[in-house]
Design a protein that fits this description.
With 141 residues, this protein is of the alpha+beta class. The chain has one domain (25-140). The chain is 35% helix and 20% strand. The protein has a five-stranded antiparallel sheet, with helices on both faces. A hairpin with a 2-residue loop joins strand 4 (97-102) and strand 5. The termini are far apart.
Length: 141
């Protein structure tokens, strides 16, 4: 019986090692490409979800087949900032990354979010400049 337990532990260790070495999850380099998948229809649908809620100003679609979460942030002035996010649970290097983009603006950040893009009790930013300041404050925590 002890021999079976030992073999089972060794098998689990080898399986875990194999998964870690050959992880093919998304990386931060995949995010600028993935964000292009957000269509105008997606933006319209997500904006409707924001407008129906009094508290949500950052919403996302369900995880895609490639484990990258796509969504939008809406500023009070109506500007929409698209984002792509990969959680540390599925990324190649076990870090979380978010990439935000709007015409004339892009920003990539690491490690602020765990499983989803969420700003907690932060108020909705007035504009892109205030959103950038919000990201700065999140990075300093």
């Amino acid at each position: 019986m002890k021999k079976i337990k030992t073999l089972f532990v060794i098998a689990l260790f080898l399986l875990f090692s194999f998964i870690c070495v050959f992880n093919t999850g998304p990386s931060k380099d995949d995010l600028p490409v993935a964000i292009k998948k957000i269509s105008l229809q997606d933006i319209t649908t997500l904006t409707r979800r924001i407008n129906k809620s009094s508290k949500d100003w950052c919403v996302s679609k369900e995880f895609q087949d490639d484990d990258i979460d796509l969504g939008i942030v809406q500023c009070k002035d109506g500007n929409i900032i698209k984002f792509a996010f990969v959680s540390h649970h599925v990324s190649q290097d076990r870090n979380s990354y978010a990439y935000f983009e709007k015409t004339g603006y892009s920003r990539s950040i690491q490690g602020i979010f765990c499983c989803e893009v969420e700003f907690g009790f932060s108020g909705q930013p007035d504009d892109i400049k205030q959103f950038d300041i919000l990201l700065d404050s999140c990075e300093k925590k």
